[in-house]
Design goal:
Blueprint: E1 6-11, H1 15-23, E2 29-35, E3 39-41, H2 46-50, E4 60-62, H3 63-66, E5 73-77, E6 80-84, E7 89-92, E8 97-99, E9 102-105, E10 109-111, H4 129-148, H5 152-158, E11 160-164, H6 168-184, E12 198-203, H7 214-226, E13 229-233, E14 237-241, E15 244-247, E16 250-253, E17 256-259, E18 263-265, H8 268-272, E19 282-283, E20 289-290, E21 293-298, E22 303-304, H9 317-335, E23 351-355, E24 359-363, E25 368-371, H10 372-385, H11 389-405
Parallel strand pairs: 1-2, 1-9, 2-5, 9-21, 11-12, 11-17, 12-13, 19-22
Antiparallel strand pairs: 3-4, 6-7, 7-8, 10-18, 14-15, 15-16, 20-21, 23-24, 24-25
Helix pairs in contact: 1-9, 4-5
The structure holds flavin-adenine dinucleotide (FAD).
Length: about 425
């Protein structure tokens, strides 16, 4: 593609951004993909890195390698810090500027603490590979410290794992940590009985998995309790500190606290100076463009639109992919001379959540599946959506190995201080 071809700049190579690039295959365009990380991340399996089931390289791929056969795509490692819609340029935080004809903002979201950002050091959230390996380190270090602790109260705090937020990520983390502690680790320790570890899932609402039907929520609740998870409903956490949490007015001593309770969109709305919702998501036009800027598409977790039978589109991977495909189609049609705006319509395939390594709940709308069959369907779906045969085989083999032997090969404490006294 020549240097004069229509230039599409895609910021963010997550599910949405990559879907745009894929949809523009064979279109008469030049594409620049900018991402602050060098890899595309399969976030749905991130919790399995945090709980030592999978290695980082099994769920992430270098963006540059993914698009290596597309000569019209240039990949840049960089962090976008602002957009100048008048000059049609994005600026990177190192001062570089990149001009575009069409811009796609697909910069996702981060976790949010409802105005309590000071909780983040004590209750990290899960969004990046760094988050996952840091959480894995905290969990494994806590067992190591407990093994050397002689004071009963301090040992109990080290063996108490609190997860805040009963959505799919909180449920998946709680179930996997409970399995790790109660089934996988016991033979490896001499001074502690890891089966006595307490995994507490705190949800402010009336039930876990509120986006699922009440019967599937109830099933997941019972399945988690069967794994030994202590579920606390109806109480919001009012304090997080190095010593633990306060919820429902009561303190709970815990050395590992994980945050799975809220997200905040990337600042795409602030870059463009246009309205956002409470979670910072830019309110896009029906065709996914920014208000008054038909040449700027905003898609995925950083956008909000009521395009699911009048309801907001959920912040999940299939939604980001469908929006990416819609944006790519619109760009192609415009280049062909068809400038009519077509509204985006979201097709929901279903809700999935897994509970440990043997159970899951799936709501396809027309049918609900739960238990072991649901877990197999969940596993097959996730393996199918991974990129590349090597990763599919590696993840399938890792799960099979854990399933049969209970041995999690990714149980490595990396990064920072390795001493049991370190936090
Ligand atoms: C722990 C977890 C579990 C999940 N589980 C599921 C699940 O089971 N099923 C499901 O469907 N969905 C799940 N999701 C949600 C799903 O991952 C998101 O909805 C999806 O990733 C959104 O895609 P996106 O393209 O909008 O953003 P992302 O996939 O988050 O991609 C955003 C990209 O933008 C880049 N970026 C951000 N800011 C900048 C910047 N300023 N400059 C340059 N690059 C930038 C990021 O590095 C990233 O690569 C989960 C999410 C998390 C965090």
């Amino acid at each position: 593609m020549t240097g004069t071809a229509h230039h599409v700049v895609i910021v963010g190579a997550g599910f949405g951004g990559l879907a745009v690039a894929q949809g523009l295959a064979s279109a008469p365009v030049r594409i620049t993909i900018i991402d602050q990380r060098n890899h595309h991340l399969f976030q749905p399996l991130l919790y399995q890195v945090a709980t030592a089931s999978l290695a980082t390289s099994e769920i992430a791929w270098p963006i540059r390698h993914l698009v290596r056969k597309r000569k019209e795509i240039c990949t840049l490692l960089g962090t976008v810090s602002s957009v100048d819609p008048e000059k049609r340029k994005v600026a990177l935080d190192d001062g570089a500027e990149i001009a575009y004809d069409t811009l796609v903002l697909a910069t996702g979201a981060r976790h949010a603490y409802f105005g309590h950002d000071e909780w983040e050091p004590y209750a990290p959230g899960l969004k990046t590979l760094e988050d996952a390996t840091s959480i894995r380190r905290r969990i494994l270090l806590s067992f190591e410290r407990a093994e050397r602790e002689t004071d009963a109260a301090r040992r109990a705090a080290l063996l108490t794992f609190v997860i805040i937020g009963g959505g799919p990520t909180g449920v998946e983390l709680a179930g996997d940590i409970a399995e790790l502690a109660h089934h996988n680790l016991p033979p490896d320790f001499r001074h502690i009985d890891t089966r006595k570890a307490r995994v507490v899932l705190i949800e402010a609402g009336a039930r876990i998995l509120p986006s699922f039907t009440p019967d599937l929520s109830a099933y997941a609740h019972a399945a988690l309790e069967h794994l030994g998870v202590d579920i606390q409903l109806g109480s919001a956490v009012s304090e997080c500190s190095a010593d633990g949490v306060i919820f429902g007015g009561q303190p709970l001593a815990a050395k590992v606290i994980l945050w799975a309770a809220g997200v905040r969109a990337s600042p795409a709305a602030a870059w463009l100076g246009v309205p956002a919702d409470n979670a910072g998501r830019l309110k896009v036009e029906p065709d996914l463009t920014a208000p008054g800027r038909p040449e700027i598409f905003v898609i995925g977790d950083t956008a909000t639109i009521d395009a699911w039978k009048g309801k907001p589109v959920p912040g999940i991977a299939p939604a980001a992919k469908q929006q990416g495909a819609h944006a790519a189609n619109t760009i192609k049609r415009r280049l062909g001379g068809d400038t009519a705006a077509r509204p985006f319509r979201y097709q929901h395939a279903g809700n999935l959540a897994t509970i440990g390594k043997r159970s899951a709940v799936i709501d396809f709308g027309w049918i609900k599946v739960r238990g072991r069959l649901a877990w197999w369907l969940w596993g097959l779906a996730h393996i199918y959506f991974l990129i590349g045969m090597r990763n599919r085989l590696a993840v399938a083999l890792s799960w099979f190995w854990i399933y049969v032997t209970g041995n999690r090969s990714a149980r490595l404490i990396t990064q920072g201080d390795q001493r049991p006294t370190a936090r």
